[in-house]
Amino acid sequence: MLNYTNPITHQIIRIIGVDHGFGNIKTANTCFRAGVVGYEKEPTFAEDVMLYDHLYYSIGEGHKEFCADKMTDRDYFILTLAAIVKEMRNENLRSAQIHLAAGLPLTWVSEQKERFRNYLLQQKDPVVEYNDALYFIHIVGVDVFPQGFAAIAERLPEFTGTTMLCDIGNGTMNIMTITNGKPNAQKCFTEKYGTHQCFLAVREEMLRKFGSVVDDDIIEDVLRNGKTDISDRYLSVIRETAKQYVAGIMRRLREHEYNPELMKLYIVGGGGCLISNFGDFDPNRVTINNDICATAKGYEFLAGLRLKKAETK
Hints:
The protein has helices at about 75-90, 110-120, 150, 195-210, 215-225, 230-255, 270-280, 295-310; strands spanning about 1-5, 10-15, 20, 25, 30-35, 35-40, 50, 55-60, 95-105, 125-130, 135-145, 160-170, 175-180, 180-190, 265-270, 285-290. By secondary structure, it is an alpha+beta fold. The protein has two domains: about 1-145 and about 295-310, Nucleotidyltransferase, domain 5 (2-Layer Sandwich); about 155-195 and about 230-280, ATPase, nucleotide binding domain (Nucleotidyltransferase, domain 5, 2-Layer Sandwich). A hairpin with a 6-residue loop joins strand 1 (about 1-5) and strand 2. Helix 4 packs across helix 6. The longest helix is centred in the C-terminal third of the chain and has 24 residues, at about 230-255. The chain is globular.
């Protein structure tokens, strides 16, 4: 969360960046599963419960399926409210003027930007009860930026020569070429090849070889850490499938003109751990940013720049 003081009203506006992933929702200081289930009555065993508009929502329950349009239902708006409250709780705030900073995959921004902005503004003054505490939210504005690029926006001057940026999320992989700190708009691509594709491949291999259904938490543990407490035969299948997925990432990058001898590779997003654990690369030519909140922080940085620039107009 960044603070911005309105030069006219002198009110403090809190800039909150929200990275709406298909696997996780990230802010500058929090990360939680992108799952939400609504109930008419308060659920008994849920840990994170939000009451909004006469319905109870269990935050982090279930899992959002990949969808190219995040505005098909109300779920991402509910998850956005949860993200705002988590940032407010982090600052011990019960009421705040909020400027939202969000993003969309690189090649979706131009088409969906205004719709996503209106979607996030559907209720400007929501009152939310979260784990028995009331929060008064006043959304005063929304900015929507390109995903991935936001994670490195503050560091653009460091990008000398040619760098391929690869943002590997749960649902999509975003690719952008940057030359001497300048993004090339003609070389931006979005592919449906996020880490969820690796999950699906692992599940299929487990069924094919062992006839077993493996819990997602076990698969996630292996993908994040390279190992977990299971038998070697199961572990080897997960690891080998993950290696094939990473090889697929590198193949797709080469299809978009990635050449490790001519350019560097900069990886952001949750999929970076797969490259670290299962990839074959030159650490002198490949940088992996393991800060899963980097994009949300980047949204806040870009929104702050835009608000300050607007002061001079």
